[in-house]
Specification:
The structure is a homodimer. In chain A, 45% of the residues are buried. Chain A is built from 8 helices and 10 strands. The first copy, chain A, is an alpha/beta fold. Chain A is elongated. In chain A, helix 2 links the parallel strand 6 and strand 7. The first copy, chain A, folds into 2 domains: 159 residues, 3-Layer(aba) Sandwich (Rossmann fold); 95 residues, ProC-like, C-terminal domain (N-(1-d-carboxylethyl)-l-norvaline Dehydrogenase, domain 2). Chains A and B meet through helix 4, helix 5, helix 6, helix 7 and helix 8 of A and helix 4, helix 5, helix 6, helix 7 and helix 8 of B.
């Protein structure tokens, strides 16, 4: 649809309702309200709480939800099945924002999809949505185009991935975030055991991450494991004061060595 | 020492010779040359190669090494014992830059210590030395003061740690850098297995690291392991295509669960 008026084309703004007022819902409302290509009609949340730092109209009454092009459901994973029943009467495109949930949770609806911002959000912390990757999926090509336009209007990083890929992305993020964070915990504990300020390692940690912009992690692996520096490895194990630390050190050292022998 | 002239005090600049022209030696020369509190007299390296992006005088002849206050030896760990013999005739303070080597490698000298920049360097990549932590150690208090002044003249982040602590810092860095980098390799491989662009995860990885500035990693652990979300854990294991990935996933999931049960 486009309207012609003298020689300027006007595209109608895409009308959006956001459901849920948690971390994702709040940040989406703030970003969409400021977006000139989007008309943010409403936020629905059970308590009818207003959205902090956002003037969007709020309703707590499902019967009052406005007619929109896209409904973005930011509920917890467990609440999405129920949401599909609540929203059955809506005509627009209904999408969820969950990384862990299949598109099929909404398959009883006519128009449905996924609009997944790949970032962790906290209401209190500002987010630059232009740098938040958005992964979309939809039940038809035309719905996919709607979501792609919406995603591109708020982020420079848009991706199309299916539900299987999104599940795999979730496991992948467990390694990239949860497991690596646990390594930082171990690192800090070793520092504590020896009265060392963990801050001393932070510039080095940041440099390791910066390298990911220019190199694959596989190609920048360093340390005694990949060097097979058994003298250093033995010295390190003696320094570790807790049995579980030694076990982790052993397991990961062996896994690295096997990996680079191409056995993994 | 200070010289009085009318009512202005003049401190003599600290005279430094850097030995070695590798990554650390090159960056130290560049930083010290630009430092108004330091007089960089010379670089010694076996081949007499000039230092890129630095105009320091270079010698390949040990007999020609200039008389300095501090000699910074940036050789590989294995070459430090030999260096202590080569440098026995020098009167100044001789320090190495190795994170993995005890101060005692230089104990046959009169004045010795350690000047360890806690960062990974590449000649080709610019470094802002003000943000590189420098960990120092010396055989006497007055030598410690010399190193502390030198360190403070090039970096905002100076630390005093002994050789035992420096060894522990090295193990700690294995967890923080080598092991976490291996987690990124696994993460990227899972993405490859499912045709997902690894770039989609990089903003999330950076956010995890940014959180370390305001929170201890122990307090920001998330994911199915700490939630004991066994349904998600089982689904994840099915998605992992390689046996070694499943083993790592199991081991780390169990280690996280034990840790937060305070058994670690």
């Amino acid at each position: 649809m486009q309207f012609h008026k003298s020689n300027v084309y006007f595209y109608p703004m895409i009308k959006v309702v956001v459901l849920g007022a948690g971390n994702v819902g709040t940040h989406l409302c703030r970003s969409l309200e400021a977006n000139p290509e989007v008309l943010l009609l409403q936020n629905y949340n059970r308590k009818g709480e207003s959205i902090s730092d956002c003037n969007v109209e709020v309703t707590y009454n499902l019967a009052n939800i406005a007619a929109a092009d896209v409904y973005i459901v930011t509920y917890n994973d467990n609440a999405l099945v129920e949401a599909s029943e609540q929203l059955a009467r809506l005509r627009g495109l209904v999408v969820h924002t969950s990384g862990a949930t299949s598109i099929n949770v909404f398959s009883t609806l006519k128009n449905y999809g996924v609009f997944y911002p790949v970032q962790s959000f906290k209401k209190e912390l500002a987010v630059n949505f232009l740098e938040v990757p958005i992964a979309i999926e939809a039940n038809t090509d035309s719905n996919k185009n709607i979501l792609l336009n919406l995603a591109k209007s708020i982020s420079n990083l848009t991706y199309q991935i299916n539900s299987k890929q999104r599940s795999a992305l979730h496991v992948s993020a467990v390694f990239a975030n949860n497991f690596s964070n646990f390594m930082y915990t171990q690192s800090q504990n070793i520092c504590k055991d020896y009265g060392i300020d963990f801050d001393i390692l932070k510039p080095l940690i940041k440099e390791t991450i910066n390298k990911l912009d220019v190199s694959d992690p596989e190609n920048i692996q360093t340390g005694p494991a990949i060097r097979k520096d058994s003298k250093t490895i033995e010295r390190h194990k003696i320094l570790l004061k807790k049995e579980a630390q030694k076990e982790l050190y052993n397991t990961l050292t062996q896994a690295i060595q096997k990996y680079y022998e191409k056995e993994l």
